[in-house]
Design goal:
alpha/beta, Rossmann fold, seven-stranded mixed beta sheet, globular
């Protein structure tokens, strides 16, 4: 099973969050990460990824134009190969003083062909005065990754049961 974390590089926090997620998840699944500017969506389609997490730094548009363009290209390429990924999720970082309405779930549903969008999209806030993530960000990322780990374990156990029952059919 393969998970890719694709992120938009802003001032470094998206990459930090992506690396935190990679560190927490790599004991359970093969995790790779990459900058949306440097990773061609065609490469991920060729790899036949199972899971995708998309990370973004938001200043105005949600998701950013860079991530929107990356996902649109991914959708175009994955449709040609009929690639359906098991789950897609995302995270975004916003300035603490910006009020936003995240359109992530709708955008992901419209631009990726996942079986599910799971777990809920992760939102972290950046404290502009201190140029740091707000207190508790690590715990939020930990909780988010724990939900993903639980999903991997449950999904993997269900797949093993299906394979086992199919073997018994023969």
């Amino acid at each position: 099973m393969k998970l890719w974390i694709i992120y938009k590089e802003g001032i470094g926090f998206s990459k930090i969050i992506a690396e935190m997620l990679q560190d927490r998840l790599e004991d359970y699944i093969d995790v790779s990460l990459g900058n949306a500017k440097k990773i061609d969506p065609a490469f991920l389609v060729e790899e036949r990824l199972d899971y995708l997490i998309v990370g973004d730094y938001i200043s105005e548009v949600i998701p950013s134009l860079e991530i929107q363009n990356w996902l649109l290209k991914y959708l175009e390429i994955s449709k040609k190969t009929n690639l359906i990924i098991k789950a897609v999720s995302g995270f975004y970082i916003v300035l603490a003083d910006i009020k936003i309405e995240p359109f992530w779930v709708e955008f992901l549903k419209d631009n990726i062909n996942p079986e599910i969008i799971y777990p809920p999209i992760l939102c972290l806030k950046l404290n502009r005065a201190e140029l740091a993530l707000e207190n508790g960000a690590y715990d939020i990322v930990k909780d988010y990754s724990n939900k993903f780990i639980e999903y991997f374990i449950n999904n993997n156990n269900n797949n093993k049961k299906e394979v086992s029952s199919r073997k018994n059919d023969f």
